[in-house]
Design goal:
Two copies of one chain form a homodimer. With 223 residues, chain A is an all-alpha fold. Chain A has helices at residues 4-36, 39-70, 74-107, 115-141, 144-169, 176-209. Chain A has one domain: Methane Monooxygenase Hydroxylase, Chain G, domain 1 (Up-down Bundle).
């Protein structure tokens, strides 16, 4: 029989899944706004970030309330603490989507991304969408297989990130310094988005397997 | 009379102060390594990041243990949760110092920073060192005045960050795309370092004043 604690935790888990949906939608729309120089779409992404922030606030208050009322210990306590860390990662992913949208807005009516780089950025957007969708499945289904598949998507993102830098360093780069600065930042935003998604998925794996790793061991950033 | 809970919390507070010291030292040394193209110094910064990670791990375990043993509620509970968020910010600041050091290492034996930009980057390093030292004082002394002064340093960092971008966008920029990419990333690392320092200081203020803000309200990033 489920007790109140686990019902509350299920609600928190549902909110985490909803945050993955919102972050994924934001990054997909930000990518389109960036490639199409769509000001209106960029504005909607920037405005919608408030929803993710509000969800995080609600989730964190719920978690603190749960700690105070139920006084969980051992694994239960770690689950609640871990959920709060996941919400921090997911909120940050929303911020990164907003950053991409802001670059789109800054360069409107032009696209910040030169033609030679469009297909790579499009792929980064697709990988970002895939990775956060899988993160949602991992949370919803406690699905460790998906969590492993997601690491491969992250490798793909790292490869695309390197492709961008190689293009920038190539003698054939003629799009100028402004475009190079934009591409550097945008590429980093996608890469960090994927890093946070991987962190969230790893946290789920550690909860499911009962393996408790220090937080910094989840940081897969190497840039 | 101090009870066990507050003694444990004092210990956690001491560790947070120590993390500010390590993060500040790392960023100061990374700045010197960057400007002097000092490979050895860069390597020491990269290696020393482990210490900050280990401190965070220890602090977080201590906090979770405190929650489990003492079952704090209300303000006491929020203090412990807030301390864990501060440790996350401070660990991230260590990562950012390491990133700066890695740029220095990547371009060795050259300096990644062209002469025209040296004084601005030097100032960014100085502001970063000041801001994190003040953050330490804020934590140690629960000093709200220092916290306010620190916001002005952050404004200064934002101004320097804009200066870098203005130099990059200037027609007179002749240092090439590689240097532009490096400067874009380095400038962003300093700016994020300051952002995290401000977040930590704001958390202290909210604890002291008893004003509890949602976590996202602490994020002063606007880029």
């Amino acid at each position: 029989m489920r007790n109140t604690f686990h019902e509350d935790l299920d609600k928190i888990s549902d909110q985490l899944v909803e945050m993955t949906r919102l972050a994924g939608s934001a990054m997909s729309r930000a990518t389109t706004a960036l490639l199409d120089a769509d000001l209106h779409l960029a504005e909607t992404v920037i405005a919608a970030d408030e929803q993710i922030d509000a969800l995080r606030k609600d989730l964190d208050e719920r978690a603190i309330d749960l700690l105070a009322r139920q006084q969980p210990v051992a694994t239960d306590l770690r689950m609640v603490v871990t959920a709060m860390r996941m919400s921090a990662d997911l909120e940050r992913m929303g911020d990164l989507a907003r950053h991409v949208a802001k670059v789109a807005r800054l360069r409107y009516p032009n696209s910040a991304i030169p033609p030679v780089m469009r297909s790579t950025v499009l792929e980064m957007g697709q990988v970002a969408a895939r990775i956060v969708a899988k993160t949602g499945s991992v949370i919803a289904g406690k699905d460790i297989e998906s969590a492993l598949a997601l690491e491969r998507d992250d490798d793909e993102m790292d490869r695309l990130h390197r492709d961008i830098f190689n293009m920038l360093m190539d003698d054939k780069w003629t799009a100028g310094t402004e475009a190079a600065v934009d591409a550097t930042l945008v590429s980093r935003y996608y890469e960090r988005f994927a890093d946070h998604a991987v962190s969230v998925a790893r946290r789920v794996v550690f909860l499911v397997t009962g393996e408790w790793k220090p937080d910094y061991a989840l940081d897969n950033e190497e840039s």
